[in-house]
Write a structure and sequence with these properties.
- Among the domains are: about 40 residues, no CATH class; about 130 residues, 5 helical Cullin repeat like (Up-down Bundle); about 160 residues, Up-down Bundle (5 helical Cullin repeat like); about 100 residues, 2-Layer Sandwich (Ribosomal Protein S5, domain 2), CATH 3.30.230.130; about 70 residues, Arc Repressor Mutant, subunit A (Orthogonal Bundle), CATH 1.10.10.
- Helix content is about 60%, strand content about 5%.
- It contains 28 helices and 11 strands.
- The protein has a 3-stranded mixed beta sheet.
- α3 runs parallel beside α6, α9 packs parallel to α11 and α10 crosses α13.
- One of its GO terms (biological process) is ubiquitin-dependent protein catabolic process.
- This is Cullin repeat-like-containing domain.
- It comes from Ostreococcus tauri (Marine green alga).
- Keywords: Ubl conjugation.
């Protein structure tokens, strides 16, 4: 190595004088323009370390270790001690320094553990406190010594010596003595910890900080799982097994669920406060198994039905939450579905309370929905409550169809009661909500065509008699049904509204045409036979005034629509009559049949039943109903002799001129005849005929597409396509009918195969 220095008195590395060049620079050997270098050479002999250096340093460090462990002043500054360690490491004496540190740690661990072992301490809590103090002192001393031997520790960490750090060495020697010469200490510590936890479980307040420090000590020593966790889990299993058996017998389900929830919260808090995080899963599982899993059957059998009946939402939420922890929701859902089916079947099959069936089902559905959303819906984000939603659907579909056709009829009549004028005063929003609720029951009905028949029947009465509370609500309901079942389902219902709208326009034109004629005010609804229910034809001899009005309207209508046929449905007509009584003029709102009877008394003061029958030409059943409503009701327009609640052939009638009603318009209600079994049978017969037509159409549609099919495949295809319940035997009859009508034929080689005939 060479270097140059500036200055007049500088010399070269060889000691020869230098000369200055003309430009002020000197050069080596006096050569002009060349700089002279400075050469540094190593010692000819390497410096030696005193032989007693290592011995003195180690003695000093050993003494320092002893003093630190004895809690005495070292007498030498920590900086000086650190230098001793550094010098030993630099001069390749690190192994000796490490040996001194390890020996000191080993001696100290042996001493403190023997001291603990020799103490006769019966109280586990006191022993834990002594162990905690001993361990704290040992760790503090180990850290102090590590700071002194830090140079050695870092050298080892960088690969310069032993692989273990000095802290690990301190822990290892303590662990070796704990597992070797002082095993009883470990056993006492574990028993003390178990006692501490059990006391806390029994409600006693303990020193959680102490437990946490001792458990951290076991974890640091690497004996936590083997020495404590396994024993602790076994003890917890036994504890919760006994407690579960006792509490499940002594308490009701509600209190037992609260106890289980409280225990789980306590164990979770215990894990968070002083137990190792790795223990949480096994501990919680142990608690769940002992308190919940072993008693699921008892909980569901003993108290689930009561919780549902009493609508205990919070207890049901608690039950759902507990069972969700151990994949027990399947069993809960099974109990839930069983309960719903039992309750629903009892409601549907209670024929004595058919009138209240829909209200009871809606009340049940509201309560069930609240349970699902509030009690079983906590984990809705992960879809775990889908099983309960599906369970509700399965249950309602099962029991609402267990009594064929009746629920469909009652739901249609329930909706009719809500849409009919005169029903309880509901706001538009309340009416919409009510209809939506009824529609939820409609969704579960399999035979929706039965509902359609009865709904159409009730809708026709509301439209023809002007009894709809709201046309907007009527149209809204049609749209709801259309959204549920498609346009084909509601095409006839929509056609009914179109007929009413067209009739309004026809009557407007009729009145304009005859506006100068002094005719009686009349309103006619012209309805299409295919869209409306079929009505029985009832003959009646109309008074001349009404007969003339009918003839005038027919002439007007057929003049505008040639080729059409009008049939008067007298059973659906109603009139408003003006009548003079002793108390003054009154308006009577009556049916057409009642009107015909009352108008007979314009010419006669008193008439017998036989005379009325001859002059009206009405059927006996209809005549007696009309007379009963006029002469036997609360408001009696006619007086009957003799007085009785029934109409007999020898009765006579006259106008009740003494009628004294404060209302000007009097509504005379017709006697409502309940739908007889025969009429219901006829209605269902029409449904069956419609279904036959749909089955025939489906068979032809399938066979036209497939050309040839076996009997089993054809039945399978039909079952999938038809939207109402049917039997294979009924389908077979329709297939036979189509074969007779030459739509299909049997295959000549295989009688179980059908071929389509174009």
């Amino acid at each position: 190595m060479s270097s140059s220095r500036r200055g007049d008195h500088s010399r070269s590395a060889t000691g020869e004088p230098s000369t200055r060049s003309n430009d002020g620079r000197r050069s080596a050997h006096g050569a002009p323009g060349t700089a002279r270098g400075l050469t540094i050479k190593p010692f000819k002999r390497a410096p030696t370390v005193p032989t007693e250096f290592a011995t003195r340093a180690r003695e000093t460090l050993r003494e320092a270790i002893r003093r630190v462990q004895a809690k005495e002043v070292t007498g030498v500054s920590h900086e000086a001690l650190y230098r001793h360690v550094e010098n030993l490491c630099v001069h390749r004496r690190a192994a000796e320094a490490f040996e001194d540190f390890q020996s000191g740690a080993d001696r100290r661990a042996r001493e403190v553990l023997r001291g603990l072992e020799g103490r006769k301490i019966e109280d586990s809590g006191v022993f834990l406190t002594k162990f905690d103090e001993t361990w704290g002192d040992y760790c503090a001393q180990a850290l102090t010594l590590r700071s002194i031997f830090l140079y050695l520790d870092r050298a080892q960490a960088n690969g310069g010596g032993k692989s273990s750090t000095l802290w690990d060495v301190s822990l290892r020697v303590f662990h070796e003595h704990l597992e070797g010469t002082a095993k009883s200490v470990k056993g006492k510590v574990v028993r003390g910890l178990l006692d501490l936890v059990e006391r806390e479980r029994m409600g006693e307040k303990i020193d959680r900080a102490l437990a946490k420090r001792v458990l951290r000590a076991l974890s640091a020593l690497g004996v936590y799982q083997e020495a404590f966790e396994n024993v602790f889990i076994e003890a917890s299993q036994e504890f919760y097994r006994k407690e579960g058996n006792e509490y499940s017998v002594q308490t009701d389900v509600s209190d037992y669920l609260k106890h289980c929830e409280r225990r789980l919260e306590e164990e979770a808090e215990r894990c968070a406060n002083y137990l190792d995080a790795g223990t949480a899963k096994a501990l919680m599982r142990t608690c769940e198994q002992g308190l919940i899993e072993a008693h699921i059957g008892d909980i569901l059998d003993k108290g689930f039905v009561d919780l549902m009946r009493q609508h205990r939402l919070e207890d049901l939420r608690r039950l759902h939450s507990l069972l969700a922890r151990m994949d027990g929701l399947g069993r809960l859902c099974s109990a839930f579905v069983t309960y719903l089916k039992q309750q629903g079947t009892a409601i549907v099959k209670d024929e004595a309370r058919d009138k209240d069936m829909v209200d009871r089902l809606l009340t049940m559905k509201t309560a069930v929905d609240e349970v699902v959303s509030k009690s079983f819906g906590r984990t809705i984000a992960d879809g775990s409550n889908d099983i309960f939603i599906n369970g509700v659907k399965e249950s309602f579909e099962s029991f609402i169809n267990c009594r064929q056709n009746v629920p469909a009829e009652l739901i249609a009549k329930y909706i009719d009661s809500k849409l009919k004028s005169g029903s309880k005063g509901l706001s538009e929003e309340e009416l919409e909500r009510t209809l939506d609720k009824a529609l939820t029951l409609f969704r579960y009905i399999v035979g929706k065509d039965v509902f359609e028949v009865f709904y159409k029947k009730e809708l026709s009465k509301r439209l023809l008699h002007g009894k709809s509370a709201s046309i907007d609500a009527e149209r809204s309901m049609i749209q709801k049904l259309k959204a549920e079942c498609g346009s084909q389902f509601t095409q006839h219902l929509e056609g009914m509204f179109k007929d009413i709208d067209l009739s309004r326009e026809i009557m407007q034109s009729f009145r304009q045409t005859f506006e100068n004629d002094p005719i009686i005010e009349m309103n006619v609804n012209v309805i299409t036979a295919g869209c409306w229910p079929s009505y029985p034809s009832v003959d009646v001899k109309l008074p001349e005034e009404l007969a003339n009005l009918q003839e005038k309207f027919m002439s007007f209508y057929l003049g505008k629509h040639s080729g059409r046929k009008l049939t008067w449905q007298n059973s659906e007509g109603h009139c408003v009559l003006k009548a003079r009584f002793d108390g003054g003029m009154k308006e009577l709102s009556v049916s057409l049949f009642q009107c015909v009877i009352l108008m007979l008394f314009n010419d006669s003061k008193k008439l017998s039943y036989t005379e009325i029958a001859q002059k009206t030409g009405m059927e006996e059943k209809e005549l007696k109903r009309a007379l009963q409503s006029l002469a036997c009701a609360k408001v009696r327009i006619l007086n009957k002799e003799p007085k009785s609640r029934e109409i007999n052939d020898d009765d006579s009638f006259e106008v009740n001129t003494a009628l004294n009603e404060r209302l000007f318009r009097i509504k005379v209600n017709s006697i409502q005849v309940k739908e007889t079994a025969e009429e219901n049978k006829q209605t269902m017969e029409r449904v069956f005929q419609d279904r036959q037509q749909q089955i025939d159409a489906a068979i032809v549609r399938v066979m036209k597409t497939r050309k040839s099919l076996t009997h089993a495949l054809l039945i399978s295809e039909l079952m999938a396509q038809l939207k109402f319940p049917t039997k294979a035997s009924d389908l077979k009859k329709r297939i036979e009918s189509l074969i007779e009508r030459e739509y299909l034929e049997r295959d000549r080689e295989d009688a179980q195969t059908y071929n389509y005939l174009a």
